[in-house]
Amino acid sequence: MNALAPIADWFRHLNATTGINFTVFYDPFDATRFVHGLWVTIELSVVTIIASVLVGVIGAWGQGVKSAWVRG
């Protein structure tokens, strides 16, 4: 028996009694899609943080350059 079966059963019961539905905890298809979406979110976050740091470093460097064109 699966070690997480009691948790999955509890979420099924929660859905049946209250209508609160967390299918990611008991439906393998939804769980797979949820984990994939979470991974894409993490990847995008890392890429955007790196890109924003690079833009910030380049912008800070540009503020110290003597050329008015670069500072603008």
Quickly list its features.
mainly alpha, 75% helix, 72 residues
Polypeptide structure, described:
The chain has 72 residues and is mostly helical. It has one domain. The protein is built from three helices and no strands. The longest helix is centred in the middle third of the chain and has 36 residues, at 28-63.
Concise overview:
This protein has 72 residues and is mainly alpha-helical.
Question: How does the SSE layout of this entry go?
Answer:
Elements: H1 5-18, H2 28-63, H3 68-71
Strand content: under 5%
**How many angstroms does the end-to-end distance come to?**
66 Å
Q: Biggest sheet: strands, sense, closure? A: none
Q: Give the domain tally.
A: 1
Total helical segments: 3
Mean of residue pLDDT values: 90
Relative helix content: over 70%
Question: Given the helix and strand composition, which structural class is it?
Answer: mainly alpha
In the predicted model, the low-confidence regions spanning at least 5 consecutive residues are none
Overall morphology: rod-shaped
Helix/strand order, N-terminal first: HHH
Per DSSP E runs of 2 or more residues, the count of β-strands stands at 0
The radius of gyration is: 24 Å
